[in-house]
Every structure is written in structure tokens, then in C-alpha cells.
From TrEMBL:
This is Adenosine 5'-monophosphoramidase HNT1. It comes from Trichoglossum hirsutum. The active site is at H95. Belongs to the HINT family. GO terms for molecular function: hydrolase activity; nucleotide binding. Keywords: Hydrolase, Magnesium, Nucleotide-binding. The keyword Nucleotide-binding applies. The chain holds residues 1 to 109 of 133 of the full protein. Residues 5-108 form the HIT domain.
Length: 109
């Protein structure tokens, strides 16, 4: 059994608030959100860093992130993807953060 926490979320072995799911992609709310609506978009293919993921497994990621941005109505937002400890990666399964800045509260998050 994989020790990867995000693989466990994909399998349904641990709970997450899922926002979108397809054959290749899962999006869910971050457990420690930096702002309201902070979501993670991940390929179902396990790999630690971006360079470990085949191109075809990445195709849907940004379109899904875009849809989540549009769903929040955020005007200001960050899409982030960390690789390696020195780059602040904590979970070794590729994930894209979608961090909306609440409208009218640009100083928060
Ligand atoms: P990183 O620093 O690796 O780019 O970000 C990892 C993110 O995963 C963090 O924002 C953290 O809150 C989130 N995270 C870690 N464990 C879990 C979990 O079990 N469930 C969810 N939903 N998010 C998690
Ligand atoms: Zn994994």
C-alpha cells in the first residue's frame, strides 16, 4: 500500500473535500487553507516532481485550475507548484495550489 497521502485520497482511503474528479485528475480543498477556497489540483499518476509526470497526465491540470478560479469568482489568485524541500514542497505527490485572494480582502491569505 502506498504511503503517499495524496494517493490515499485518490483511492478514497482517507477523506478529502473533492471538487472535481476525472480519469486523470483530482481537485480537492487544502486541509490547511491559506485563504477561503484554497484548492489542490493533482494528477492521479503518482510522481514526486513535475518532471516525474508524463505530459499527457498534465494536460487537464490547468484547465481544471481555471475552472476552480472561475467558480470562486476570485479576481486575484495564485497558481503555485512546489518541487523539492528547498522549494517548500511538503507532500511528495505533484500538486498545483489554487489560492484565491478574497475579493476586497487582498491583504488576507
Ligand atoms: P506543499 O508545501 O507540498 O506545496 O503543499 C502541501 C499542501 O498539502 C499543504 O498546503 C497542506 O495543507 C496540504 N495537505 C497536506 N496533507 C493534506 C491532507 O491530508 N489533506 C488535504 N486536503 N490537504 C493536505
Ligand atoms: Zn501519490
Amino acid at each position: 500500500m502506498s504511503a503517499c497521502i495524496f494517493c490515499k485520497i485518490i483511492k478514497g482511503d482517507i477523506p478529502a473535500f473533492k471538487l472535481f474528479e476525472s480519469e486523470r485528475v483530482l481537485a480537492f480543498l487544502d486541509i490547511q487553507p491559506l485563504s477561503r477556497g484554497h484548492a489542490l489540483v493533482i494528477p492521479k499518476h503518482h510522481g514526486s516532481k513535475l518532471t516525474d509526470i508524463p505530459d499527457d497526465q498534465l494536460e487537464e491540470i490547468l484547465p481544471v485550475a481555471k475552472k476552480l478560479v472561475l467558480a470562486t469568482g476570485a479576481i486575484n489568485y495564485n497558481i503555485l507548484q512546489n518541487n523539492g524541500r528547498l522549494a517548500h514542497q511538503e507532500v511528495d505527490h505533484v500538486h498545483f495550489h489554487m489560492i484565491p485572494k478574497p475579493n476586497g480582502q487582498e491583504g488576507l491569505g
